[in-house]
Write a structure and sequence with these properties.
Layout lengths: L6 H9 L6 E2 L15 E2 L9 E2 L6 H6 L11 E2 L6 H10 L4 H8 L3 H8 L7 H21 L10 H11 L11
Antiparallel strand pairs: 1-2, 3-4
């Protein structure tokens, strides 16, 4: 909307403004046509990222001498809370390593080392495997005929699949 807005224009827009942080009375995310008592929309963090406070470079960032804050951001990875280890690795074990290597173009030995957690994947391999496993999780959820909306985000789809997949039965004892 161009030009000057009146108080009436602002109030009219506010009255029908969607509220993404709330759920409607039916439990679905709010839209423009939602009416009734709203409740808070629950959230669930998939991961927590610990970052350093780069106060020594704050002046340079604010002055525009450093183009991107990510260039100086220090990230501390807690391997116990790493979303890749938590959501991707368990699903990678469902897929034969040779198939993963063939489908992704990664080296078979690299795939086996990543699955056994002997090596951390490079950022491009991590992104590739996350996307690959996300697609696998969505396919499996479709086979399970899940009534819920299947997540579009790869990590969320993996978390949803891990929560809903049938648990394997007890393994026979090896002698």
């Amino acid at each position: 909307m161009g030009g000057v807005r009146t108080y009436r224009d602002v109030l009219d827009a506010y009255r029908t403004h969607p509220e993404p942080k709330s759920l409607g009375p039916d439990g679905r995310p709010c839209g423009r046509a939602t009416n009734g008592l709203l409740s808070r929309r629950p959230i669930r963090a998939l991961s927590i990222t610990h970052i350093g406070k780069e106060t020594s470079l704050l002046d340079e960032i604010q002055a525009g001498l450093i183009g991107d804050e990510e260039d100086v951001l220090t990230e501390y990875i807690d391997l116990n809370r790493d979303p890749f280890a938590r959501y991707i690795i368990p699903i990678l074990h469902e897929i034969p390593a040779a198939q993963i290597a063939c489908d992704t173009g990664l080296n078979l030995t690299t795939v086996k080392r990543i699955r056994s957690r002997r090596v951390q994947p490079s950022p491009p391999s991590r992104a590739l495997l996350t996307c690959y496993v996300g697609d696998h999780a969505r396919q499996r959820l479709a086979q399970l005929a899940v009534d819920q909306l299947v997540e579009r985000d790869d990590l969320r789809a993996c978390a949803q699949y891990l929560a809903l997949r049938p648990q394997p039965g007890p393994q026979p004892a090896r002698s």
